[in-house]
Amino acid sequence: MRKLTTLISAVCCFLAISFYPVHPAFAASKSSKKPVHAKMNPAQRAFFENRIRPVLVKKCYSCHSAKSEELGGKLRMDTRDGMREGGESGPAFVEGRPDESLLIQALRYDGLEMPPNEPLPEAVITDFVKWVEMGVPDPRSDLPLIAKKPNTVSASADPALWSFQPITNPELPAVQNQHWGVDPLDQFVLARIEAVGLKPTYDAAPRQLVRRLYYDLTGLPPTLEQVETFLDDYQRRQQAAVKTLVDELLASPHFGERWGRHWLDVARYGESNGNDGLSRNPTFPHAWRYRDYVIQAFNNDLPYDRFLTEQISGDLLPAETPAERDRLLIATGFLALGSKPAKAMNVNFDMDVVNDQIDVVSTGVMALSVACARCHDHKHDPIPTSDYYAMAGIFLSTETMWGAAGHQPLTAPETPLHVLKAKHHYVAPPDSGARPVLNKRVQARKKKPKYVYPAGTPLAMGVREKKKPTDCKINIKGESKKLGPSVPRGFLTACNMTSSPKIDASQSGRLQLAEWLTSDDHPQTSRVMVNRIWLHLFGQALVRTPDDFGVYGERPTHPELLDHLATRFRSEGWSIKQLIRSIVLSRTYQQSSFCEADVRDADPENKLLCRHNRRRLDAESLRDSILATSGQLNPDPGLGSSIANVDELVNTAGNLHLPSNHRSIYLCMLRHSEPAQLAAFDLPDSTKPVGQRNETTLPTQSLFLLNSDFLIEQSQAFARDVLTDPKLKETERINLVYQRTFKRLPESFELQRTLTLLQDLDRSLNTEVSQTEQRRLIVWSTLCQALLTTSEFRYVD
């Protein structure tokens, strides 16, 4: 029976997709012809810089670079083109096919042997395999770049170093249409549009606008009643109705769930370590407390400067109550959540932990790849190795607390955890119900716990000061056993700031780091966060590489607007809610996503913001919307985590994902073992900060929509609800399904087409199903599933 339902669903979904016309802008993007590898995305660039380039520098350049005394095999590996052209044996790789690539064969010691002295660790070889599978994304130019000297003159004079220049508060530009804008930001946008002889498109229809606002601010669809209430109010009060709705949504507890998820991507949030090179993946049973801290911070509109300060140095801040002390300790989980390598196979373990912390602070807060300067001066940004180790000293003077790491001898070593004091402020983690099925050999090798806590003790990941803070010595070529001179703890020298805080010799420097990042004249912090907020409201950022404000990142499309918003952000108390409110009430945000053909042709990428962007729901919003539409969503906050009592290896513990109808942010987010309901739709792997998710279109997504157990179950629940009232006519029932799914009644052609479809489905079941109730459930659940997979449901105008 289930096979029959799936087959019918597949047919019906194919038909239902055509119910909703393809958006013109979307159609244009689909038809544009671009080379597959014309432009690497930020995640690919970060992967190369953090996983590939350091290995090439340390292990390959001595024999395969322009500086080699004798070029081995006539193969250059210090340039992109050199590797593509290859040497005596041919090209180093075949893009997308690692097994056929000479590079991978050499690393595996399969015929060739590279490096010749000893093979690389298996985890490193796996990184190179993944790199080739990606298509070998490589940002290097033909000639090796030389990092620019980090001084004030170069940072001010070089346009490529725009993000190091001080933030200005530009004057509002003159515009011809004095009546179009409603917020100062509109003038910056309109001035650019008018400068090229174009005009903004028309305003979004109220029905489109209300749905856009609900998704952007809460991540949930509005109910039919909420849509009708807004439309009635809008008819009477126009923009006053929009302001009322925006204020209601900003005050909703669902706001923190939506915007907290955006930050968790940046914070590389995960509830397990991820595979560490030995295919071990220990759980982080207490990571969920950081998730709840982030949600609460966004709901409380914690000022962004304070938000950063708590996450970097919460353990050093004063607290008036035990509950406040606990909250500040939990905040420092930001620095402890990172994925750790296996201690047993990594002599650089401690410095790898430090590198992860430098990366999340520099990439997440400043959008700069400081971690690239671990082995050598940064190849293109003005970040010398000495700056890297100045920051490294801060985190080397910090004790990172992640817990037991599965109690296994080859994983990361066990550490203590923060013990929380105000128990009545924290709900005890629920019994997960999970019954780990442990491999006997793995179970036998479990270590005796070094740190033992009474049952039920509330614990949290985080950091604290080491007893003896110390400066860090330069690790020559990134090797912790090859030490150079010591570097005093400090910050990036290229940031053009009036002064930097002095680090007390008795402290790590984390408190001063937070003070430095949130200084009024820091050139990146406010720009980066403003850019991230713009990205999530428009689907594209003003700087389209939100994690890279360096030389290889894109320039801002509207540099004056970016600085205007960064200045407002700081002057209005670093309030995220206030900035979002200003943006969504602007004329720019409230434009329609439809536009005239000549405007689309003149600006196909919408860099001028002549219209809004149509966007696909992300993984969490899609799942939450399906649950909301089927009537199965539990809107209450989820408590704890399904692994809150499971301190084991994910890969030996059986299925740790338990059924849940709570919002997706409360699902257990295990690294390399994501929730099946989300995995097909571009979840980040949570090993690196991610400011912008990839958006791919893959066969696995279609298969999920057609065959997912979750979607079939929700479609059946939806159908049962629709069939509850026996007095409804078929047309009334169809109207009800459309209203719940699309918040509108079906058009006449849709109504007739749906009636025909229901009849055809019913006839196809004559010989398969005899019971009337079962037949009706199959037919109607098929229709419900079809509508839940349409473009109209999955896209926001």
Architecture overview:
The protein is mainly alpha-helical and 797 residues long. Helix content is 44%, strand content 3%. It has helices at residues 2-17, 24-31, 42-60, 80-85, 102-107, 122-134, 152-157, 184-195, 206-218, 224-237, 239-251, 253-266, 288-299, 304-313, 322-331, 333-336, 349-366, 385-396, 440-444, 510-517, 525-538, 559-571, 576-584, 597-602, 619-630, 699-707, 709-722, 730-742, 748-764, 772-788, 791-794, and strands at residues 398-401, 418-419, 459-460, 462-465, 472-475, 483-487, 615-616, 795-796. The strands form four sheets. The chain has a two-stranded antiparallel ribbon with strand order 1-4. Strand 5 (472-475) and strand 6 (483-487) form a beta hairpin. Residues 1-38 and 143-154 have low confidence and may be disordered. Residues 184-399 form the DUF1549 domain. Keywords: Signal.
Helix-strand layout with pairing:
Layout: H1 2-17, H2 24-31, H3 42-60, H4 80-85, H5 102-107, H6 122-134, H7 152-157, H8 184-195, H9 206-218, H10 224-237, H11 239-251, H12 253-266, H13 288-299, H14 304-313, H15 322-331, H16 333-336, H17 349-366, H18 385-396, E1 398-401, E2 418-419, H19 440-444, E3 459-460, E4 462-465, E5 472-475, E6 483-487, H20 510-517, H21 525-538, H22 559-571, H23 576-584, H24 597-602, E7 615-616, H25 619-630, H26 699-707, H27 709-722, H28 730-742, H29 748-764, H30 772-788, H31 791-794, E8 795-796
Antiparallel strand pairs: 1-4, 2-3, 5-6, 7-8
Helix pairs in contact: 1-30, 3-6, 9-10, 9-11, 10-11, 12-13, 14-15, 14-20, 17-18, 21-22, 21-23, 25-27, 27-30, 29-30
